[in-house]
Amino acid sequence: MTSESAQMRRSILLVHASFVLTGVVVTMLGPLIPILSARWSISDADAGGMFTSQFAGSMLGVGLSSLLLPRRGFRIVLALGLFWMSLGVAALALSRWPSALAAVFFYGVGFGITIPTGNLLISKMYPEGDASALNLLNMSWGIGAILGPIAIAALVQLHRVEALYWILALLLVVCGAGVAGSDFNVNPASPPKNPTTPRKNWDWKLGIIFSALFFLYVGSENAFSGWVATYARRVSGAGSFWALTPAFFWSALVGGRGLAPLALRKYSDRRVANAGLILACTGTAGLLASRTLWSSTLSALIAGLGFAPVYPIVISLLSRRYGDRAQRVAGFMFALAGMGGAVMPLIVGLVADRYHSLRLGLAVPLACLVVMIVLQAFEAKSADSGSINSRAMRA
What we know:
The protein is an all-alpha fold.
């Protein structure tokens, strides 16, 4: 093995390690909410505000990454995101309410920088096979999302939850130092100054449909995964197994995304997406009806499997429907997705606090999933209409 290929392997392993840690950071708030709520005596509305703070920070981080990458390169920006997360996680360990909102916002900025930077870096490293490489990278993120709740459940049992913050902060610093000392040997591409893509009329109806799909999907996923541990904790009443419910959700989601290509070989992407949405509705409705920890866990598994294929298919449909314009439209859509992740968990908390029922609060993502099924039908009808018009023009 040449020294160059060995260096590339080390660099790739560092990026994957950074995504495992990022998966832990992004998803740890869900299983921590019951603990933090009890410690600080905060309401569900206040707890929902922590999700909003986290994802508002991530939106700022995404913007910073796009500004910093052309100027500083992958190595510095990725290391910066990891160090930023470590400071936010450490600050959460030392925070009380409401200063914890600032700590959560701070590490949100960190993963907002890290996630797009890592994806773009791997895409540059594998120009010929970036889809498979990116899928593996995001599987690493999923591994972190699964490991986080498992670690929290174990530490709850030992009454040492505070250790999570310090261990995670230390690992982020070590990984960031490794990234800072690496040579990725790739540079971000500058956007073309004179794009040649011809302008086309904007289809407002289609734009509204996709805007709503991006907003509602990420909002619903974050609302469910963020609040499922709290719901399971209130159903179970004791023990620490409730902290594992997000791990079951993320395990099903990661596994479902691995199985989705098999389903797509036999069925159309819209049929698979609709089946996923119906399954996610079933899991969410099952959670609302559950009265035991085991039924809540089963509902989390069903919902995770249902959510799994939807987002990649929506992104694929966006690319197909907009063609050459998709790259310009995508930034706006991903920003709306981030807004959904910031707003929807807060709405769940506000509804739960107002009516003293988390079950009623979690009816919000269920309603959003139903709306998405309707929107998918409108999108498919629009595509069929466009296909008919195109054939008529050729005739």
